[in-house]
Specification:
Layout lengths: L2 H14 L8 E3 L2 H8 L7 E5 L2 E6 L1 H10 L4 E4 L6 H12 L3 E4 L6 H10 L3 E4 L3 H7 L3 H22 L8 H14 L4 E2 L4 E4 L19 E7 L1 E3 L2 E2 L2 E7 L4 H20 L6 H14 L37 E4 L2 E4 L3 E4 L2 E6 L2 E4 L11
Parallel strand pairs: 3-4, 5-6
Antiparallel strand pairs: 1-2, 2-3, 7-10, 8-9, 9-12, 10-11, 13-16, 14-15, 16-17
Helix pairs in contact: 7-8, 9-10
């Protein structure tokens, strides 16, 4: 079975087993079309039933789809034709009267247009696609390991570049260069590169500030390989480090180690988050850790289930999630350390191999 056939079969089994509210599913979003087919295109729709998949696209992608999708029925939309015309014809042929749609991926306007154009009654797919995407198959994990290997390699390269007097933008530019030079196909998100007092901004943007001796520099970055994302954060010091900076770094690192030790499949993520959060609070910095410990990732850098301090979701085996505690002292400095892990029944596999001891460059 081809790797891009595996997830389609998973969706079809879920449809056949009644895990969706209808026995047919319409995929419009590029990310879910890619999940189901392994084919990347800006235009297209896929109609999935327990025993069939119809992929519709236009002239620009049809020849490539023929080569990439031998296991899927294809149809090319003609000039003057509408996707709804082809979908409705297939619905009639298969006597389908109810159809699931991606309620988390389309706007109200898109839903209204679909509801008016299609002959079947529309039902929201709910979280079922998220559940399927959250549990990674081995081929997906291999792609994510490859993406993370690129990210680790780029981090090693950027350490040789950072020096006093560089601007944040210059570091960002060098980092992006290394991410591509080491094998990244594209960035999984715009990197975060901040220095000095700007490191207290969890999602700050690189600017013209020049790095000074005694600064922290925080870098949050990742790439895509075969459609799948990596994500990591490292905080390094330049020239020297104060006792307070060293202490805060050690607290964040220990909080992450606690999170990594607690992380496993079959637990509520809120319990794992709580363990790391409680440690930071016990050291007197609870109010300075304002975001969640982690987020799911895969085809998107933030995806799938809700991994939050209040989430009641139970972590799935082979789910991939970040572990990224941080402490941010306003207008002074901040520290974040982020790895991405695969949840297993007896613990976790850490995809991120980069060193985490405090580096003073």
């Amino acid at each position: 079975m081809a790797t891009n056939d595996i997830n389609l079969r998973r969706i079809q089994r879920a449809l056949g087993d009644g895990k969706f509210p209808a026995r047919a599913l319409l995929l419009i979003s590029p990310v879910n079309r890619y999940f189901a087919t392994g084919f990347d295109s800006s235009a297209g729709m896929a109609l999935v039933t327990p025993d069939d998949c119809l992929f519709i696209t236009d002239f620009r992608y049809f020849e490539a789809a023929q080569s990439a999708l031998p296991h899927i029925r294809l149809e090319m939309i003609r000039r003057g034709e509408k996707y709804a015309d082809i979908i409705n014809r297939c619905l009639r042929e298969k006597e389908i009267s109810a159809l699931c749609y991606e309620d988390s991926e389309i706007s109200m306007a898109e839903y209204a247009a679909l509801n008016e154009a299609l002959s079947a009654e529309l039902s929201p797919a709910g979280k079922q696609l998220s559940y399927l995407r959250a549990v990674k198959m081995e081929f997906e994990l291999e792609y994510m390991r490859a993406a993370q290997a690129v990210t680790d390699a780029a981090f090693e390269k950027i350490l040789d570049d950072i020096h006093v007097g560089m601007t944040e933008k210059e570091i960002e530019a060098r980092l992006i260069y290394h991410l591509y030079a080491c094998g990244g196909e594209r960035l999984s998100f715009d990197p975060i590169v901040v220095s000095g007092p700007n490191t207290s901004l969890p999602h700050g943007h690189a600017g013209d500030r020049r790095v000074c001796r005694g600064d922290f520099v925080t870098m949050d970055f990742g790439v895509v390989r075969r459609g799948y994302c990596s994500d990591m954060t490292r905080t390094v010091a330049v020239g020297s480090v104060s006792d307070e900076m060293r202490e805060i770094y050690a607290i964040v690192l220990e909080a992450q180690q606690i999170g990594l030790r607690e992380a496993r499949a079959g637990r509520k993520w809120s319990e794992i988050d709580g363990a790391a959060r409680s440690y930071i609070a016990s050291r007197g910095y609870g109010q300075y850790f304002g975001h969640g410990l982690g987020h799911g990732l895969g085809l998107e850098v933030h995806e799938s289930l809700e991994y939050s301090p209040d989430s009641g979701d139970v972590t799935p085996a082979n789910g991939v999630v970040s572990c990224e505690p941080g402490i941010y002292l306003p207008a002074r400095f901040g520290v974040r350390i982020e790895d991405c892990i695969v949840l297993k029944k007896d613990g976790c596999e850490n995809l991120t191999k980069s060193k985490k001891n405090l580096l003073v460059l």
